[in-house]
């Protein structure tokens, strides 16, 4: 047994199942992590990313899948938490053969895990995967799917931001506020649109310059800065991390002028204790998995036969869910991140005890 094997059992001690998928002919190297099926089958996206090491990929998929359990529970869905990562550069390594090989591995889990889009994958990729697999969401509209889940992800983040604004400034409007958005890819670009329409001033940054150019072409009033460091150091009312995880480090919290942090990125807290540092500085943190659940709600709706209007109505509920988190945080005198965990854990315990380990009831 290698050190990595030992780490998997130690790091994934909360997880029900971790599966390594390998198809040398197509170049597929993937990991599927199922954190919990207490509330139902696990649903979570497939991230295609050039991890430096397999250990990095393992850490990411374990963290992401755990977050999906909490996200589904807090969103009121009868779904568990899972996630998958494909190790490689999607720009050069993605192929039909690789995606279909991956689909066969997901199929072998017999419905305990449903996949969807994530960083590095899109709805067209889900269509390829679905040619070998019955357990796929986030497919193209042409194939009866929800299409791009970033639409309702951004919409949900905006609802969470409204709830945070209400707590801090007494109004659920962002009009007149300056919002810094770090990462203006699929989700960040849609979030910018909501903010501009609501009357906010927006400052953006992204490591991918074409993404910045696209946003500024669409919204010329948006200001761009060269780096996340420059954005964080700016005078902001709201900071919205919308790129990869770990955005809220001790250094960021120390220099942040924003009174609210609310963004789409997963696993924003760089380490345990950051949530307390935010609270001590008087910064209201809207827990990431609470506010970014709109994409999950969107693809989960496919399981009933997709209706965008119905999914959007459900995603609007993120406003009230975020309010509940803030209310519990205030009543129990804990940071919102802890309050969100408590609400999710209560539902997983209360409902999950009725179900136990989920098996495909065929």
From TrEMBL:
Pfam families: ELFV_dehydrog, ELFV_dehydrog_N
Membrane-spanning segments: none
CDD domains tied to this protein: NAD_bind_Leu_Phe_Val_DH
Annotated protein name in UniProt: Valine dehydrogenase (NAD+)
Domain (Glutamate/phenylalanine/leucine/valine/L-tryptophan dehydrogenase C-terminal) ranges: 147-356
EC number(s) from the headed UniProt entry: 1.4.1.23
Binding-site positions, NAD(+): 183-188
Family, per entry: Belongs to the Glu/Leu/Phe/Val dehydrogenases family.
BP GO terms, sorted: amino acid metabolic process
Active site: residue positions: 83 (proton donor/acceptor)
Phylogenetic classification of the source organism: Bacteria, Bacillati, Actinomycetota, Actinomycetes, Propionibacteriales
UniProt entry keywords in alphabetical sequence: NAD, Nucleotide-binding, Oxidoreductase
MF terms in GO: nucleotide binding; valine dehydrogenase (NAD+) activity
